[in-house]
Design goal:
Blueprint lengths: L1 H4 L10 H9 L5 E4 L5 H9 L5 E15 L6 E3 H8 L8 E4 L5 H10 L9 E3 L3 H9 L4 E6 L1 H4 L6 H4 L2 E3 L1 E3 L5 E2 L3 H5 L6 E8 L6 H10 L1 H10 L2 E2 L19
Parallel strand pairs: 3-8, 4-5, 4-6
Antiparallel strand pairs: 1-10, 2-6, 2-7, 2-10, 2-11, 8-9
């Protein structure tokens, strides 16, 4: 986007709660969330006569990871929910990136709890720390976005190589792996759409960036990143009546 339009976007990594606060306090023009704004958050912007523009542009997935030393590749979502409710089962512990992250909020909503239990729940500051910790601690289950595994930073590849991504059983008896196809088809039970939320209020850089990532080029980039684009980019196939011999 920056190369195409000679523009500059400043990326600020923050938790879900911090991002919404930054948008409300006009410290950010645009944020990326794995949900739409809720009614209480919309009231804040309405009081300022601002109508947020919300655009879905990709489908992400929450992935459960475990060290390869345990040889486990399957997990039932109900077991995770029971553990979050405080019930002891075969789960040793859950590791989150941040107590204010979207993954914590998402699983808390599934379990219908207001807060996570004190025992067996661990949190760090970044997803990189989760990958490092889980890869070196047998039996711990990390909770991360699938993009951190599908397209890891070069320095994190050695840790990704030491973990298994677990297939998850949701409704029914089938365990589903968070592959790009399963995420696109919404077969994976923890798939979730990603949204661009813009409160600039005018035709500025935020709208331009959102249009770019939701457009043809942006959707192709998302497809190559391991996430699922909201719109599958078109493919142009050229056929010929005869084969040309380029060696002549």
């Amino acid at each position: 986007f920056e190369n195409t339009y000679n523009a500059k976007i400043t990326l600020v990594p923050q938790s879900e709660k911090e991002s919404v606060i930054a948008l409300a306090n006009e410290k950010a023009d645009i944020i990326i969330l794995s949900r739409k704004l809720n009614s209480e958050e919309e009231k804040v912007f309405k009081s300022k006569n601002i109508v947020p523009r919300t655009t879905a542009f990709a489908t992400d997935a929450i992935a459960f990871i475990k060290s390869k030393t345990s040889n486990d590749t399957l997990i039932a979502l109900n077991d995770v929910i029971d553990f979050i409710k405080g019930k002891q089962n075969g789960i040793k512990g859950l590791v989150f990136d941040n107590p204010n992250s979207s993954t914590v909020r998402y699983l808390s909503e599934l379990a219908k709890v207001n807060s996570l239990p004190e025992n067996g729940i661990f949190s760090f500051k970044t997803n990189d720390e989760v990958l490092k910790y889980v890869s070196n601690n047998d039996g711990m289950i990390g909770v991360v976005g699938i993009n951190w595994i599908a397209q890891p930073k070069p320095e994190m590849q050695k840790y990704v190589d030491k973990i298994n991504v677990l297939s998850v059983k949701g409704v029914g008896n089938e365990y589903v792996y968070p592959s790009q196809d399963n995420i696109t088809m919404k077969k994976y039970p923890l798939a979730r759409d990603l949204y661009s939320i813009n409160c600039q209020g005018y035709e500025g850089l935020g709208i331009g960036f959102t249009s770019f990532i939701a457009g043809e080029i942006g959707q192709r980039i998302i497809l190559k990143s391991g996430l699922a684009p909201i719109r599958i980019p078109g493919r142009k196939i050229v056929t010929r009546n005869q084969i040309e011999n380029d060696s002549k």
